[in-house]
Amino acid sequence: MKREAITMMLNGVDDNYISETAVFHPEHIQETHERIIHLKKKRIITFALAAALMLALGISAYAAWNIHQKRQSELREQMKIEDNAVTDYKEEKLSDAQIQTEGVTLLSTVNDGEFQKVYVNISPVEPEIARNFGRMEENEDGCMICYDFGFTTDGESFGFATPAILTDTDGTITMEELIDAAYDEETKTFTMECACINTMFSFDKPFDLTLVLFRETQNQNDHTTDGEIIRTFGTVTVYPTENTVRNITFINPYSFENAATGGKGKVIGVNLSSFNVDILVTHDNMENMYSTNVELNEEEREEYLKEQLGWLQAMDELSQSMVLTFSDGSSRKGFGILSSPLENGILINHCGLGNHSIDINNVVKIQIGDKTVWEHQ
User: Fold this and answer.
1) Helix spans in 222-334 (H)
2) 232, 281 in Cβ contact below 8 A?
3) Tell me: the pLDDT tens digits for 188-209?
4) Cα(260)–Cα(311) distance, rounded to whole angstroms?
């Protein structure tokens, strides 16, 4: 039997069959003999298919295939892809070519409005490398050594790869907890997130993503830092996902003030996407505040920085007090600004939502503080 056929058979088994045999149902104790026999048959079929797959692929390849599927499931659940009807997420269909014990396996890609986040499994990663991820240690020469993972896009731009967040967190997860969730010691597989800035590539064509392990050495004597790639795991081809946006314009803009200068500002609307909220702002002296061509003397610079800080604080306060209410009565509030590009006379405050998506079509009300600035009619 070919691998494709076995894979299709296993994928065709209803998940409910598996969960049904693993969960205790007191109400089924008095069920008929036929019912009990039927459940036993389902269990035997499931185990038989798994055994057939192990025979066809080999135990190591089966374990690799299993961890890829497990990670995809965890990512979907963590991001609430199905719950929130996320269209900016693309999951890679695992093929024979990806059922491997070494190299890079592409799992999924998601567009959060500012970044194309690519999730991959890399292996083999030895436990001592995984457990010491990002940790500085002194070697025998007195230099500080750190092992990190990185990626390049199309062999050019370089970025850092980080362990994927696979567990629910309130923002206080430790590095040890992060590694425990993302690293599988049995298969020596590390699940990583590569955040590629959307402006780095075109959406109408794929790009190559190469994963590497590099060693950073900091010389304590001359305060120099050297980086050396010590292993290349491999390259995968990534097809970028588009970002679906819901634009909401406030009929009555929300007014706010720069406490440092008394300057006036307005929130004119928001752009909502599954993993990002853009707060659209205009305010006094905006062109000068965000221009790269302003020449100032020392006194003017001090006033400039005072005004700029005042605007940043005011916008941070309003973003933290913003509340999105959904059709089921639940809400999401408190958004931190990650960046604020000026585009066509509008300041776009990007507020990332982390790995917890929202259903943009179910937002029915927006508040800033106690004031309702928009409500679905």
Assistant:
1) 286-289, 298-320
2) no
3) 999 999 999 887 777 788 999 9
4) 8
Q: Which of 117, 174, 308 is nearest to 106 (CA)?
A: 117
- Burial classification of residue 350, based on how many CB atoms lie within 10 Å of its CB (0-12 exposed, 13-18 middle, 19 or more buried): buried
User: Structure pTM?
Assistant: 0.77
Strands 322-326 and 331-333: antiparallel
Which pair of tokens denotes residue 6?
């076995």
Residue 3 CA to chain centroid, in angstroms? 31
- Measure Cα distances from 339 to 13, 109, 115 in Å: 46, 22, 12
Residue 36 pLDDT > 80, yes or no?
no
Instruction: Please give the pLDDT value at position 95.
Output: 72
pLDDT tops 70 at residue 2: no
Q: Which residues contact 190 (CB under 8 A, 6 or more apart)?
A: 121, 122, 123, 125, 130, 149, 163, 182, 183, 184
Identity of the amino acid at 273:
S
Taking the C-alpha atoms of residue 295 and residue 289, their distance in angstroms, rounded to an integer, is 12
- Token duo for residue 233: 């795991």
pLDDT, tens digit, 9 for 90 and up, residues 53-67: 444 445 555 566 789
Quick one: residue 5, left, alpha or beta (phi over 0 = left, psi -120 to 50 = alpha)? Answer: alpha
Please list the residues that pair with 255 across neighbouring strands: 266
Q: Which pLDDT belongs to residue 290?
A: 83
CA distance 211 to 236: 9
